[in-house]
Amino acid sequence: MSSCRVLARTRTAALLTSRIPVPSPAARSLPRLVRFQSTQSSYENILVSAPKPGVGLITLNRPKALNALSSALFVELNDALKKFEEDKEIGAIVLTGSERAFAAGADIKEMAPLTFSDAYVNNFIAPWSYLTTLRKPVIAAVSGHALGGGCELAMMCDIVYSTKTANFGQPEIKLGTIPGAGGSQRLTAAIGKSKAMELILTGNNFSGEDAEKHGLVAKAFDGGHQEVLQGAIDTAAKIASYSRVAVIAAKEVVNKSQDLGIREGVEYERRIFHSLFGSQDQKIGMKAFAEKKKAEWSHS
Ligand code: DAK
Protein backbone atom coordinates (compact mmCIF):
# COMPACT_ATOMS: atom_id res chain seq x y z
CA MET A 1 0.00 0.00 0.00
CA SER A 2 1.41 3.43 -0.92
CA SER A 3 2.29 5.89 1.83
CA CYS A 4 -0.30 8.25 0.35
CA ARG A 5 -2.96 5.59 0.76
CA VAL A 6 -1.87 4.83 4.32
CA LEU A 7 -2.09 8.53 5.16
CA ALA A 8 -5.55 8.77 3.60
CA ARG A 9 -6.73 5.72 5.54
CA THR A 10 -5.29 7.09 8.77
CA ARG A 11 -6.96 10.45 8.20
CA THR A 12 -10.35 8.89 7.51
CA ALA A 13 -10.00 6.46 10.40
CA ALA A 14 -9.35 9.45 12.65
CA LEU A 15 -12.48 11.12 11.29
CA LEU A 16 -14.56 8.04 11.88
CA THR A 17 -13.45 7.50 15.45
CA SER A 18 -13.07 11.02 16.86
CA ARG A 19 -15.92 12.40 18.93
CA ILE A 20 -16.73 16.04 19.46
CA PRO A 21 -16.41 16.64 23.19
CA VAL A 22 -18.98 19.46 23.17
CA PRO A 23 -21.27 19.14 20.12
CA SER A 24 -22.01 22.32 18.19
CA PRO A 25 -25.69 23.39 17.84
CA ALA A 26 -25.71 21.99 14.28
CA ALA A 27 -24.31 18.65 15.43
CA ARG A 28 -26.79 18.49 18.34
CA SER A 29 -29.63 18.62 15.81
CA LEU A 30 -28.48 15.27 14.37
CA PRO A 31 -29.24 12.84 17.20
CA ARG A 32 -29.44 9.69 15.08
CA LEU A 33 -26.13 10.28 13.33
CA VAL A 34 -22.84 9.40 14.89
CA ARG A 35 -20.96 12.67 15.33
CA PHE A 36 -17.42 13.20 14.19
CA GLN A 37 -14.77 15.77 14.74
CA SER A 38 -14.28 18.49 12.19
CA THR A 39 -11.20 17.92 10.03
CA GLN A 40 -10.40 21.61 10.15
CA SER A 41 -10.89 23.28 13.49
CA SER A 42 -10.05 26.61 11.82
CA TYR A 43 -13.28 26.61 9.79
CA GLU A 44 -15.70 29.22 11.05
CA ASN A 45 -18.53 28.91 8.55
CA ILE A 46 -18.77 25.18 7.90
CA LEU A 47 -18.54 21.85 9.73
CA VAL A 48 -16.80 18.88 8.16
CA SER A 49 -17.21 15.24 9.08
CA ALA A 50 -17.32 11.68 7.74
CA PRO A 51 -20.60 10.14 8.97
CA LYS A 52 -20.10 6.80 7.17
CA PRO A 53 -17.13 5.14 5.48
CA GLY A 54 -16.59 6.72 2.08
CA VAL A 55 -18.84 9.72 2.76
CA GLY A 56 -17.65 13.29 3.31
CA LEU A 57 -20.20 15.63 4.88
CA ILE A 58 -20.01 19.42 4.73
CA THR A 59 -22.53 21.40 6.77
CA LEU A 60 -22.95 25.12 6.09
CA ASN A 61 -22.88 26.72 9.52
CA ARG A 62 -23.74 30.42 9.70
CA PRO A 63 -26.97 30.02 11.67
CA LYS A 64 -27.36 33.72 12.52
CA ALA A 65 -27.38 34.62 8.81
CA LEU A 66 -29.39 31.58 7.64
CA ASN A 67 -26.21 30.27 6.00
CA ALA A 68 -25.95 33.30 3.69
CA LEU A 69 -23.09 32.58 1.32
CA SER A 70 -20.28 35.01 2.11
CA SER A 71 -16.88 35.10 0.42
CA ALA A 72 -15.30 33.72 3.61
CA LEU A 73 -17.72 30.79 3.61
CA PHE A 74 -16.79 29.97 0.02
CA VAL A 75 -13.06 29.95 0.80
CA GLU A 76 -13.74 27.33 3.49
CA LEU A 77 -16.26 25.37 1.43
CA ASN A 78 -13.88 25.12 -1.51
CA ASP A 79 -11.02 24.08 0.77
CA ALA A 80 -13.14 21.29 2.30
CA LEU A 81 -14.40 20.16 -1.12
CA LYS A 82 -10.83 20.02 -2.42
CA LYS A 83 -9.73 17.91 0.56
CA PHE A 84 -12.57 15.42 0.05
CA GLU A 85 -11.91 15.33 -3.70
CA GLU A 86 -8.28 14.43 -3.02
CA ASP A 87 -9.02 11.94 -0.20
CA LYS A 88 -8.85 8.42 -1.66
CA GLU A 89 -11.10 7.08 1.09
CA ILE A 90 -13.97 9.41 0.16
CA GLY A 91 -16.27 8.29 -2.65
CA ALA A 92 -19.13 10.80 -2.43
CA ILE A 93 -19.81 14.12 -0.72
CA VAL A 94 -22.97 15.43 0.97
CA LEU A 95 -23.56 19.18 1.26
CA THR A 96 -26.19 20.36 3.71
CA GLY A 97 -27.32 23.25 5.91
CA SER A 98 -29.66 23.33 8.89
CA GLU A 99 -33.33 22.60 9.52
CA ARG A 100 -34.06 26.31 8.96
CA ALA A 101 -31.89 26.99 5.94
CA PHE A 102 -29.75 25.22 3.39
CA ALA A 103 -28.67 28.76 2.42
CA ALA A 104 -30.74 31.95 2.14
CA GLY A 105 -28.67 33.15 -0.80
CA ALA A 106 -25.54 35.15 -1.38
CA ASP A 107 -24.74 37.41 1.56
CA ILE A 108 -26.79 40.49 0.65
CA LYS A 109 -25.04 42.60 3.29
CA GLU A 110 -21.66 41.82 1.74
CA MET A 111 -22.95 42.46 -1.79
CA ALA A 112 -24.94 45.63 -1.17
CA PRO A 113 -22.06 48.18 -1.24
CA LEU A 114 -20.23 46.62 -4.22
CA THR A 115 -19.70 48.76 -7.29
CA PHE A 116 -19.58 47.39 -10.83
CA SER A 117 -15.80 47.59 -10.86
CA ASP A 118 -15.53 45.84 -7.46
CA ALA A 119 -17.60 42.96 -8.79
CA TYR A 120 -16.16 42.85 -12.31
CA VAL A 121 -12.46 43.49 -11.70
CA ASN A 122 -12.28 41.24 -8.62
CA ASN A 123 -14.43 38.60 -10.33
CA PHE A 124 -16.84 38.62 -7.37
CA ILE A 125 -18.10 35.14 -6.43
CA ALA A 126 -16.11 33.43 -9.21
CA PRO A 127 -15.04 30.76 -6.66
CA TRP A 128 -18.68 29.63 -6.52
CA SER A 129 -18.24 27.38 -9.51
CA TYR A 130 -15.43 25.27 -7.98
CA LEU A 131 -17.99 22.69 -6.85
CA THR A 132 -18.96 22.02 -10.48
CA THR A 133 -15.40 20.98 -11.32
CA LEU A 134 -15.35 18.05 -8.85
CA ARG A 135 -15.25 14.55 -10.30
CA LYS A 136 -16.73 12.87 -7.22
CA PRO A 137 -20.52 13.04 -6.87
CA VAL A 138 -21.99 15.69 -4.56
CA ILE A 139 -25.47 15.32 -3.06
CA ALA A 140 -27.33 18.36 -1.70
CA ALA A 141 -29.54 17.67 1.34
CA VAL A 142 -31.86 20.67 1.51
CA SER A 143 -34.21 21.70 4.29
CA GLY A 144 -35.58 25.16 5.00
CA HIS A 145 -34.67 28.04 2.69
CA ALA A 146 -32.68 27.47 -0.50
CA LEU A 147 -33.02 30.90 -2.05
CA GLY A 148 -31.08 32.74 -4.73
CA GLY A 149 -27.49 31.58 -4.51
CA GLY A 150 -28.63 28.87 -2.08
CA CYS A 151 -30.91 27.40 -4.73
CA GLU A 152 -28.09 27.79 -7.28
CA LEU A 153 -25.60 26.03 -4.99
CA ALA A 154 -28.01 23.11 -4.56
CA MET A 155 -28.49 22.94 -8.35
CA MET A 156 -24.69 22.75 -8.86
CA CYS A 157 -24.77 19.45 -6.95
CA ASP A 158 -25.21 16.19 -8.84
CA ILE A 159 -28.27 15.01 -6.93
CA VAL A 160 -30.66 17.19 -4.91
CA TYR A 161 -32.66 15.73 -2.03
CA SER A 162 -34.96 17.95 0.03
CA THR A 163 -37.71 17.90 2.58
CA LYS A 164 -41.20 18.34 1.14
CA THR A 165 -41.42 21.65 2.99
CA ALA A 166 -38.09 23.06 1.80
CA ASN A 167 -38.41 26.58 0.38
CA PHE A 168 -36.70 26.98 -3.01
CA GLY A 169 -36.66 30.15 -5.07
CA GLN A 170 -34.76 32.62 -7.23
CA PRO A 171 -35.95 35.89 -5.64
CA GLU A 172 -33.18 38.10 -7.14
CA ILE A 173 -35.75 40.05 -9.23
CA LYS A 174 -37.06 41.47 -5.94
CA LEU A 175 -33.57 42.86 -5.21
CA GLY A 176 -33.30 44.53 -8.60
CA THR A 177 -31.02 41.90 -10.03
CA ILE A 178 -31.05 38.43 -11.64
CA PRO A 179 -29.62 34.99 -10.76
CA GLY A 180 -25.83 35.21 -11.03
CA ALA A 181 -24.55 31.71 -10.28
CA GLY A 182 -26.17 29.72 -13.06
CA GLY A 183 -29.77 29.78 -11.78
CA SER A 184 -31.33 30.88 -15.06
CA GLN A 185 -29.51 28.10 -16.91
CA ARG A 186 -29.71 25.18 -14.46
CA LEU A 187 -33.31 25.83 -13.37
CA THR A 188 -34.40 26.01 -17.01
CA ALA A 189 -32.52 22.82 -17.87
CA ALA A 190 -34.11 21.06 -14.90
CA ILE A 191 -37.75 22.15 -15.10
CA GLY A 192 -38.25 23.63 -18.56
CA LYS A 193 -38.42 27.17 -19.93
CA SER A 194 -41.99 28.18 -19.14
CA LYS A 195 -41.90 27.19 -15.45
CA ALA A 196 -38.37 28.56 -14.94
CA MET A 197 -39.35 31.83 -16.63
CA GLU A 198 -42.39 32.14 -14.37
CA LEU A 199 -40.37 31.50 -11.22
CA ILE A 200 -37.45 33.80 -12.13
CA LEU A 201 -39.64 36.68 -13.38
CA THR A 202 -42.01 36.59 -10.38
CA GLY A 203 -39.46 35.63 -7.72
CA ASN A 204 -42.10 33.23 -6.36
CA ASN A 205 -40.83 30.49 -4.09
CA PHE A 206 -41.66 26.80 -4.51
CA SER A 207 -41.73 23.89 -2.10
CA GLY A 208 -39.55 20.78 -2.06
CA GLU A 209 -42.66 18.81 -2.92
CA ASP A 210 -43.17 20.93 -6.08
CA ALA A 211 -39.45 20.77 -6.86
CA GLU A 212 -39.71 16.98 -6.90
CA LYS A 213 -42.78 17.13 -9.21
CA HIS A 214 -40.90 19.40 -11.62
CA GLY A 215 -37.78 17.20 -11.59
CA LEU A 216 -35.42 19.60 -9.82
CA VAL A 217 -35.28 17.39 -6.74
CA ALA A 218 -34.62 13.63 -7.04
CA LYS A 219 -36.52 12.87 -3.85
CA ALA A 220 -38.55 15.02 -1.44
CA PHE A 221 -38.67 13.48 2.04
CA ASP A 222 -41.46 13.52 4.58
CA GLY A 223 -40.17 14.72 7.92
CA GLY A 224 -37.41 17.21 8.61
CA HIS A 225 -33.71 17.85 8.24
CA GLN A 226 -32.72 14.61 9.93
CA GLU A 227 -34.64 12.50 7.41
CA VAL A 228 -33.32 14.20 4.28
CA LEU A 229 -29.77 14.25 5.61
CA GLN A 230 -29.89 10.57 6.51
CA GLY A 231 -31.30 9.82 3.03
CA ALA A 232 -28.46 11.74 1.38
CA ILE A 233 -25.80 10.05 3.53
CA ASP A 234 -27.24 6.60 2.75
CA THR A 235 -27.21 7.32 -0.99
CA ALA A 236 -23.68 8.73 -0.78
CA ALA A 237 -22.55 5.60 1.09
CA LYS A 238 -24.09 3.39 -1.61
CA ILE A 239 -22.31 5.35 -4.35
CA ALA A 240 -19.05 5.22 -2.37
CA SER A 241 -19.33 1.42 -2.19
CA TYR A 242 -18.87 1.14 -5.97
CA SER A 243 -15.72 1.44 -8.07
CA ARG A 244 -14.49 5.06 -8.02
CA VAL A 245 -13.47 4.64 -11.67
CA ALA A 246 -16.99 3.65 -12.73
CA VAL A 247 -18.62 6.32 -10.56
CA ILE A 248 -16.46 9.10 -12.01
CA ALA A 249 -17.11 7.82 -15.53
CA ALA A 250 -20.88 7.63 -14.90
CA LYS A 251 -20.96 11.22 -13.58
CA GLU A 252 -18.93 12.39 -16.56
CA VAL A 253 -21.22 10.85 -19.18
CA VAL A 254 -24.42 12.07 -17.53
CA ASN A 255 -22.99 15.60 -17.37
CA LYS A 256 -22.01 15.40 -21.06
CA SER A 257 -25.69 15.00 -21.90
CA GLN A 258 -26.13 18.64 -20.83
CA ASP A 259 -23.63 19.86 -23.44
CA LEU A 260 -23.98 17.45 -26.37
CA GLY A 261 -26.79 16.45 -28.72
CA ILE A 262 -28.18 12.92 -28.28
CA ARG A 263 -26.11 11.40 -31.09
CA GLU A 264 -22.79 12.88 -29.98
CA GLY A 265 -23.69 12.09 -26.38
CA VAL A 266 -24.33 8.43 -27.15
CA GLU A 267 -21.04 8.23 -29.05
CA TYR A 268 -19.22 9.88 -26.13
CA GLU A 269 -20.80 7.40 -23.73
CA ARG A 270 -19.70 4.49 -25.92
CA ARG A 271 -16.09 5.72 -25.96
CA ILE A 272 -16.04 5.96 -22.17
CA PHE A 273 -17.77 2.57 -21.89
CA HIS A 274 -15.10 1.02 -24.15
CA SER A 275 -12.34 2.62 -22.09
CA LEU A 276 -13.62 1.00 -18.90
CA PHE A 277 -12.53 -2.39 -20.29
CA GLY A 278 -9.05 -1.08 -19.54
CA SER A 279 -9.84 -0.74 -15.83
CA GLN A 280 -9.10 -3.33 -13.13
CA ASP A 281 -12.54 -2.82 -11.66
CA GLN A 282 -14.36 -3.93 -14.81
CA LYS A 283 -12.54 -7.27 -14.51
CA ILE A 284 -13.13 -7.43 -10.75
CA GLY A 285 -16.85 -6.57 -11.05
CA MET A 286 -17.66 -9.02 -13.83
CA LYS A 287 -15.57 -11.85 -12.31
CA ALA A 288 -17.28 -11.34 -8.94
CA PHE A 289 -20.69 -11.51 -10.64
CA ALA A 290 -19.83 -14.76 -12.42
CA GLU A 291 -18.47 -16.27 -9.17
CA LYS A 292 -21.45 -14.99 -7.14
CA LYS A 293 -19.08 -13.04 -4.86
CA LYS A 294 -19.03 -9.49 -3.60
CA ALA A 295 -16.72 -7.30 -5.68
CA GLU A 296 -13.70 -5.97 -3.78
CA TRP A 297 -12.95 -2.85 -5.81
CA SER A 298 -9.39 -1.72 -6.49
CA HIS A 299 -10.58 1.73 -7.59
CA SER A 300 -8.24 1.50 -10.52
N1 DAK B 1 -27.78 37.67 3.19
C1 DAK B 1 -27.43 38.19 4.39
N2 DAK B 1 -28.12 38.00 5.50
C2 DAK B 1 -29.26 37.27 5.42
C3 DAK B 1 -29.69 36.69 4.22
C4 DAK B 1 -28.90 36.92 3.05
N3 DAK B 1 -29.16 36.37 1.85
N4 DAK B 1 -30.85 36.04 4.45
C5 DAK B 1 -31.10 36.17 5.74
N5 DAK B 1 -30.16 36.91 6.34
C6 DAK B 1 -30.08 37.31 7.75
C7 DAK B 1 -31.12 38.37 8.07
O1 DAK B 1 -30.66 39.65 7.70
C8 DAK B 1 -31.24 38.20 9.56
O2 DAK B 1 -30.13 38.82 10.18
P1 DAK B 1 -30.31 39.76 11.49
O3 DAK B 1 -31.31 40.78 11.10
O4 DAK B 1 -30.84 38.81 12.55
O5 DAK B 1 -28.94 40.28 11.75
C9 DAK B 1 -31.08 36.69 9.76
O6 DAK B 1 -30.45 36.21 8.57
C10 DAK B 1 -32.42 35.98 9.88
O7 DAK B 1 -33.23 36.38 8.80
P2 DAK B 1 -34.74 36.89 8.96
O8 DAK B 1 -34.91 37.60 10.25
O9 DAK B 1 -35.09 37.63 7.72
O10 DAK B 1 -35.51 35.49 9.05
P3 DAK B 1 -36.99 35.18 8.55
O11 DAK B 1 -37.27 33.79 9.02
O12 DAK B 1 -37.94 36.27 8.96
O13 DAK B 1 -36.93 35.20 6.95
C11 DAK B 1 -35.97 34.64 4.77
C12 DAK B 1 -36.16 34.23 6.26
C13 DAK B 1 -35.00 33.64 4.14
C14 DAK B 1 -37.32 34.58 4.05
C15 DAK B 1 -35.40 36.09 4.70
O14 DAK B 1 -34.25 36.16 5.53
C16 DAK B 1 -35.00 36.49 3.31
O15 DAK B 1 -35.84 36.84 2.47
N6 DAK B 1 -33.69 36.47 3.05
C17 DAK B 1 -33.14 36.90 1.77
C18 DAK B 1 -33.40 35.87 0.69
C19 DAK B 1 -32.88 36.32 -0.65
O16 DAK B 1 -33.33 37.34 -1.22
N7 DAK B 1 -31.93 35.59 -1.17
C20 DAK B 1 -31.32 35.87 -2.47
C21 DAK B 1 -30.12 36.77 -2.27
S1 DAK B 1 -29.43 37.30 -3.80
C22 DAK B 1 -23.26 35.89 -8.22
C23 DAK B 1 -23.67 34.67 -7.83
C24 DAK B 1 -24.78 34.51 -7.02
C25 DAK B 1 -25.46 35.59 -6.57
C26 DAK B 1 -25.08 36.84 -6.92
C27 DAK B 1 -23.96 37.01 -7.76
N8 DAK B 1 -22.13 36.09 -9.08
C28 DAK B 1 -21.37 34.84 -9.53
C29 DAK B 1 -21.65 37.36 -9.47
C30 DAK B 1 -26.60 35.36 -5.71
C31 DAK B 1 -27.45 36.32 -5.31
C32 DAK B 1 -28.40 36.04 -4.23
O17 DAK B 1 -28.43 34.97 -3.66
From TrEMBL:
SUPFAM superfamilies (UniProt xref): ClpP/crotonase
GO cellular component: mitochondrion
GO terms (BP aspect): fatty acid beta-oxidation
Record bears the keyword Lipid metabolism: yes
Domain of life: Eukaryota
Family the UniProt entry places it in: Belongs to the enoyl-CoA hydratase/isomerase family.
Record protein name field: Probable enoyl-CoA hydratase, mitochondrial
Organism encoding this protein: Exophiala mesophila (Black yeast-like fungus)
